[in-house]
Amino acid sequence: MSDDVDLKPELCNCLAVRQAARHVSQFYDQCLAPAGLRTTQFSILAKLKRRGPMTINALAREMVMDRTTLGRNIQPLQREGLVAAVTGSTDRRSKELHLTAAGAARLAAAIKGWAKAQARFEAVFGAERSRELRAMMRAVSASELADDLAAAAR
Amino acid sequence: MSDDVDLKPELCNCLAVRQAARHVSQFYDQCLAPAGLRTTQFSILAKLKRRGPMTINALAREMVMDRTTLGRNIQPLQREGLVAAVTGSTDRRSKELHLTAAGAARLAAAIKGWAKAQARFEAVFGAERSRELRAMMRAVSASELADDLAAAAR
DNA sequence: TTGACAAACGTGTATATGCGCTTATATAGG
DNA sequence: CCTATATAAGCGCATATACACGTTTGTCAA
Asked: For residue B127, what is the domain's CATH number?
């Protein structure tokens, strides 16, 4: 054997998911651009709409996103007045993120673009296959990959 | 009906893939960190190893990545001498990316970490399911989502 | 030859991503 | 009450991502 491991990039699960994410993100971004939102921003507003006010930590967990990443992602939204961050009433360390009226309006305006992207995706990929894809992605997002790592470090 | 579209983030194909990509990337990044490489960097070196010297455009296409993104991603690799960029011999506009000896060495050192990540992923997710996942992701990456958009703009 | 067009790449700008470290606040134990 | 510890969030740093625009170079036809 020439190498320890035969280096076939097409076997890398990480690369596969990242490439797909780039491709899909570009498409959804194009569809949302007329409304002045990126996909990440749309997701944040949609979550807040559906779940109501949440702290940064809680929202970050739901988004499968680092806390500091979310903290930075809300900055453009705050600047535009789409999201308001208020100090928690019971815990003054925390900051509750609220969807503003302007935020709800922007979200409503963007839904057309999102629905278009979604429809196109399912037309190309198939509704059933799309369901399978989402289920698989959810399983990946929920998988506890790093547990082993922590154990090995001990 | 309350809304034009019922706003269920769990139906968004884009969000599902992005979240999975974040989660998996973090894990692979942790496994590659001891070798001093990010997953993107590892992918680039691996591609160059397997395919030989390539131009920025060609490599970007293969990575399902914007040309300018790749151009910036190779900067840290150039700085560390892992990749060399030389002006194309036949076309002086193009730049051929070459894996250096140091780059090959770094790649070899990182393969252990990658194999560990890969093994852990397949242990958690299953080998067969992982194959399906990669096939699905490749299909997504290859799908021509934006064609419609260009047609609609006409 | 030269001028129009296309292709390859770089730059400016903005957002996205996460790690390590720090600060402010809460909570439990003594 | 006060201290040790845990938790919420911010900041510095570096990389990742892509669009709009500009520059250089190649190509082809008049």
From this structure: 1.10.10.10
